[in-house]
Amino acid sequence: MKKRRLFVDMDGTLAVFRPVDTLETLYERGYFLNLAPHQNVVEAVKKLIQSKEVEVFILSAFLSDSPYALTEKNMWLDKYLPEIDTAHRIFLPCGKDKKEHIPGGVRPDDFLLDDYTHNLALWQPPARGIKLLNGINHTHGTWPHDRLRYDKQPAELASNILRIMGNRAKIRDGLPRKATPLRVVSSHTVGER
């Protein structure tokens, strides 16, 4: 029997989204490498890997015309999540549909943990999405499905993810703290995150 698979986004999910004033900032050396981790989320992913109940992949978009983005994302993972080998890291150009880049295709029992509603909406169906509420997204409440607060303890967050993936729970967390509207340029399409 194949393990269920969890695909985890990076920017805004594993790494704290850092607002920028101009698009050019995203192209500067060090932008992606120096993003702070959402430590609870990183630790929860480590617990999921250790549990051996699911196979964990990174699924992240990158600026394909940046000389630094892809290299820095890999360096970031080497630093914070070295448990994820290169075979479990999937990168795609910004603006592309994440499910179209899964080797062998997406399975109905695949899950995506992401902070961006647009990515989740494209993922579900055929698979299922879990929105990570990171304190700056979900300000319009447009994702009606499973959603988890980033500020939970790592063990609780990992347990919640496993319960959702095992169809043992539907979890609809509220916002972790007062959310602020996204008003800056981001690597995602502008809109509800």
List keywords for this structure.
single chain; 193 residues; alpha/beta; Rossmann fold; 6-stranded parallel β-sheet; 4 helices
- Count of individual helical segments: 4
Gross morphology? globular
Order of H and E elements: EHEHEEHEEH
What is the CATH class designation? Alpha Beta
Q: Which blocks of ≥5 consecutive residues have pLDDT under 50?
A: 179-193
Tell me roughly what share of residues is in helical segments: 10-25%
Can you identify the CATH superfamily? HAD superfamily/HAD-like
Q: In percent terms, what proportion of residues is strand?
A: 15-25%
From the N-terminal CA to the C-terminal CA, the straight-line distance is: 35 Å
What's the architecture in CATH terms? 3-Layer(aba) Sandwich
Instruction: Give average pLDDT, whole number.
Output: 90
The tally of domains stands at: 1
* Strands side by side in the biggest sheet: 3-2-1-4-5-6
Question: What integer value in Å does the Rg equal?
Answer: 15 Å
Named CATH topology: Rossmann fold
Main sheet, how many strands, which sense, barrel?
6 strands, parallel
